[in-house]
Write a structure and sequence with these properties.
By secondary structure, this protein is of the alpha+beta class. It has 16 helices and 36 strands.
């Protein structure tokens, strides 16, 4: 290629580049926001002042829309192609997307056809406050270069360019803009709820449960009268308020919507819930399940009766949410007291009484028939929290005249809680065990007998064994001066402290392995048990293995106190029975890991040099 030809090509490329820059690129000044104002400023249409929106489409596949803002509530309503609540956030977002777009360029034109504005794809009309006719009507035409679209305000001769995303922003279906809330209400103002369940046996009548809010407190008023579970009802109302439509199946504009109720299982709903608040009554019907192609039932048909003529689907979870029994809705707490204000408790079981008192430093002390003992603070907290939150597993009907049948005429256990500033304690009565393993119980001031789970009751029945401090030895390791160990099947040995070192004195006399002896002492120091065995269930020595202990350790302290720990056999859980020789009836359980550390044989105690 000759130099002349190359030069011509270079000049042509420079020319093309310059033309592109001049005709297609915008200068920095043109790109400034000052020279490209948003549509709402150019046509004085602030989004907050828009009260009516109409959108029509050239494409017949889309339905024309009309949206009107309620002047009192400022809520948006879809009025065409049918009447429905609109999602205010989505409507405002659509308006923001359109009105905040900046006018890229104004064009003076003689014809509209080449810009697609003679038959626009979208016509957007906006009414502001007090306007009888549209404040502005925008015709949306064809797409242009640089991701733009041609637009014309109907009353003006010129056209302008804005971002082509306006086409997507405005191409909405009624479903896109509908409010998907199934029921719009204020849970705080709901004063009554009625549940109606269709019985499986079609020959019997439906069952109904009524709840009312009286003086700020929820009550079940039918078919029984009882305090309601406020937390359960408030949770239900909250979930109903946030319930969203999965799909819109039929609308009020559909003339056949009322004739299709049987098809959707809504002619005789399996569940109906009626809510009454200060302004309205809403009735939600739960119909048939929607069976998918795979056979799963993930959605269910629902309808708001009277308030709307529309049928939706929602998550199948709505059935579990609203399928409530009287037991589900009533307050299941057995006894009402404030555990944080409790300063005294008393557990009376037969002739034995255990009393716990809390001083001004919030330290609990336990008074037992054998004297005062230190408490297990965690166990006391578990007692207070457990009884305060104790709930009925079942309610016994017509039980007040037959307390003896449940062991409550003369309760086996009485638990009383005295609160600060209260003269009379709150008392829990505990009766017999039922055949299913639950326990009959009632509050002393209540006529209602209940059955409760036995786990907490079993602990209460243990009395001081549950509530006493689980730390049974507490000394300093330097206070130990003599240790004797006897292992089943092993040779016993005794160690004596000489200064800071240990020496074997039996069966041989030699220096001991300090590390191994100290390891045993450390295990005995601050010895903490897993649990005490209650005095009423003390097993025999044969059952516990104390007749032939697997481990017996005697430790003597500088203050001449001597403790002998006896370890028996394991129980079903693998824990070991243990006790101190001077308190043979105070039996406790030690975990296997701790026992393994106490079972150090003589050969480990002897030093490696011997």
């Amino acid at each position: 290629m000759s130099f002349k030809t190359t030069l011509i090509i270079i000049i042509l490329l420079i020319g093309i580049g310059g033309a592109y820059y001049l005709f297609f690129q915008e200068s920095p000044d043109d790109a400034s926001t000052d020279e490209k104002p948003p549509i709402h400023e150019v046509y004085d249409v602030p989004r907050d002042e828009v009260e009516q929106v109409e959108i029509s489409f050239a494409d017949a596949a889309y339905q024309d829309l009309k949206l009107v803002k309620d002047k009192t509530t400022s809520n948006w309503q879809l009025t065409a192609p049918f009447q429905a609540d609109a999602d205010g956030e989505k409507v405002n977002q659509m308006l923001d997307d359109m009105l905040n777009k900046r006018v890229k360029q104004m064009l003076e034109v003689t014809g509209l056809t080449q810009y697609g504005l003679d038959t626009p794809s979208i016509v957007l009309s906006l009414w502001t406050a007090g306007g009888a006719s549209p404040t502005a009507t925008f015709l949306i035409g064809k797409k242009a270069i640089n991701f733009s679209v041609y637009v014309k305000e109907q009353s003006e001769a010129h056209i302008f360019l804005i971002e082509s995303s306006a086409l997507d922003d405005l191409t909405k279906s009624p479903t896109d803009l509908r409010d998907r809330s199934v029921i719009k209400f204020n849970p705080e103002t709901v004063s009554s709820i009625q549940f109606t369940h269709r019985n499986v046996d079609s020959t019997s009548q439906s069952s109904t449960i009524n709840c009312e809010k009286q003086d700020g407190t929820w009550h079940v008023i039918h078919p029984i009268k009882a305090k309601a579970d406020a937390e359960e009802i408030e949770s239900l109302l909250s979930e109903l308020r946030s319930l969203k439509v999965s799909s819109f199946e039929a609308d009020g504009a559909d003339a056949n919507v009322l004739t299709q109720l049987e098809k959707f299982g809504l002619d005789d709903p399996r569940i109906q819930v009626k809510l009454t608040d200060s302004d309205n009554t809403y009735t939600l019907g739960i119909g048939a399940s929607v069976v998918s192609e795979t056979g799963t039932q993930e959605r269910v048909y629902v309808k708001i009766f009277v308030y709307q003529d529309a049928i939706y689907t929602v998550s199948e979870d709505i059935h579990d949410l609203l399928n409530k029994s009287v037991f589900d809705l009533r307050d299941k707490r057995i006894i009402d007291f404030q555990r944080t204000d409790t300063i005294r408790f008393e557990i009376k079981q037969g002739t034995e009484t255990v009393i716990g008192t809390r001083n001004y430093d919030n330290i609990w002390e336990l008074q037992t028939p054998t004297g005062k003992i230190k408490v297990d603070a965690t166990a006391v907290d578990d007692l207070l929290f457990g009884v305060d939150s104790l709930e009925a597993a079942a309610f016994i009907d017509n039980s007040t005249k037959n307390l003896a049948l449940y062991g409550l005429a003369s309760p086996s256990i009485k638990v009383a809680f005295t609160q600060r500033g209260e003269e009379n304690p709150a008392v829990l009565l505990i009766g017999d065990y039922a055949q299913d393993g639950t326990v009959y119980a009632k509050a002393e001031q209540s006529d209602q007998v209940t059955r409760v789970k036995r786990a907490l009751i079993d602990k209460i029945a243990s009395g001081a064994a549950w509530l006493r401090d689980k730390q049974v030895l507490n000394f300093h390791i330097d206070d130990a001066i003599r240790l004797t160990s006897t292992l089943a099947g092993g040779e016993p040995f005794t160690c004596q402290r000489l200064g800071t070192n240990w020496r074997l004195t039996a069966p041989v006399r030699e220096d001991a392995n300090n590390a191994e002896v100290n390891a045993i002492i450390y295990e005995l120091d601050d010895l903490v048990v897993d649990a005490f065995i209650g005095s009423k269930s003390t097993p025999t020595d044969a059952a516990t293995g104390f007749s032939k202990p697997s481990v017996q350790l005697t430790i003597e302290l500088r203050d001449q106190k001597v403790y002998t720990l006896q370890v028996g056999r394991t129980d079903a859980s693998g824990s070991f029975y243990a006790r101190f020789q001077h308190e043979p009836n105070l039996i406790f359980m030690l975990n296997a890991e701790r026992i393994q550390k106490l079972k150090t044989p003589l050969e480990y105690i002897r030093t490696s040099e011997q």
